[in-house]
Amino acid sequence: MILHFGLGAFHRAHQAVHTQEAGDGWTICAVAPRSPDVVRALRDQDHRYTLLVRDGERVSATEVTSIRRTLHAPTEAEQVIRYVADPSVRVITLTITEKAYADTAPGSPIGLLAAGLSRRSAAGAGPVAVVSCDNLLANGARVREAVQHACGNVPEGVSFPATVVDRMVPATTPDDLATAERLTGRPDLAAVVAEPFSQWVLQDDFPGGRPSWERAGARFVADVEPYEQAKLRVLNGVHSALAYTGALTGHEYIADALDDPPLAHLAERLLAEDVLPTLTPPPGVDLPSYGEQVVTRMRNRALRHRCAQIAMDGSLKVPIRLLGTARDRLAAGAFPQWACLAVAAWLRHVTVSLDDAGHPVDVNDPRAEDLRRLAHAPERLLAEVVPDLADHPDFTTHLRNTLSDFAEHGVRASLTHA
């Protein structure tokens, strides 16, 4: 059995689907860390839900049944801990978002995981793999560190394989729910939407066994880092750049942003001139073709991927998705003009929070208030968000000048000039 923390749309469109398609009988107990809504919906539907795969005008519906039980962590914490300690659970996966790894309070996902692993170890319940499926650098090491911080040690028999996950899963809309009902003939309040593409790369370190995910297209490798860097910098980096510039120029969806020539130019140049030169090609991956594939996927209008959704938690995501690219280009003696523009767009998005027409943009960032307080003092703001780039005054100067251009001329006009 698999225990999963994080019952959001991504898990239901990715790991749950891979587990079903593996076809070897593994099932999932999924834990909702906060809201009970999806738990109620799945319980009311006997834990069956619909995956809609949208590609342009085409849409298909698949029933997913790999999730067999759900738990609501705030009200069923003891049951969650018991499942972590249950010897029948041999894989524990997580999609809890980047910020959750810093929260080790007793009722948090990491707190519950740590408590269950300690109880599991004391009972001699057998080995288990804990698998972070979040977009974090070295996510296996990150979840291991979080568990160690919460437990004081890492219980014996627990592995933390690193992974890379990739599938675009926009928020489900009322229209999507109507489509699911039309195609299946029944209401489905837990339906999810995804693109056709799905990738899962894993380090093969599962001491208690695992599903045959390779049957569902997963790839098991000794080192996931090249795949991780390619995905975080190519897909996530470009996604973030389009989310911030798109929101600031009045676009609601990523596909609309890519239809705007200066924003499309930013995405293309960011890829070609800043991102790809910093990467080592993973085995069997042609990076320029991968970059083209990523942009093509983002143009899939059927997904209606909102800029505001991609822009969430930028203070946690931008350092991983964009600043690493900037650092590596500077170290190579090149100037990362396009990454700098993208970082400036994030700073304007989170601190000014108005688009070119003066309309408010949706901001959901744990550091928004702190950064807004520093917005009147650019030097302090940049020292706060890019402290390790202080040795590159040309970068911070360009970043400061770009913010001034955005304020004076607007984001779209500044991108057009660039």
TrEMBL record:
Mannitol dehydrogenase C-terminal domain sequence ranges: 223-403
Phosphoprotein recorded as keyword: no
Record keyword Oxidoreductase present: yes
Gene3D superfamilies assigned to the protein according to its UniProt record, in alphabetical order: N-(1-d-carboxylethyl)-l-norvaline Dehydrogenase, domain 2, NAD(P)-binding Rossmann-like Domain
A Pfam family annotated for this UniProt entry: Mannitol_dh_C
Catalytic activity: D-mannitol 1-phosphate + NAD(+) = beta-D-fructose 6-phosphate + NADH + H(+)
InterPro entries on file: 6-PGluconate_DH-like_C_sf, 6PGD_dom2, Mannitol_DH, Mannitol_DH/Oxidoreductase, Mannitol_DH_C, Mannitol_DH_N, NAD(P)-bd_dom_sf
Entry's EC annotation: 1.1.1.-
Mannitol dehydrogenase N-terminal domain mapped to chain residues: 2-214
Keywords: Oxidoreductase
Descriptive protein name: Mannitol dehydrogenase family protein
Organism: Nonomuraea salmonea
Lineage of the organism: Bacteria, Bacillati, Actinomycetota, Actinomycetes, Streptosporangiales
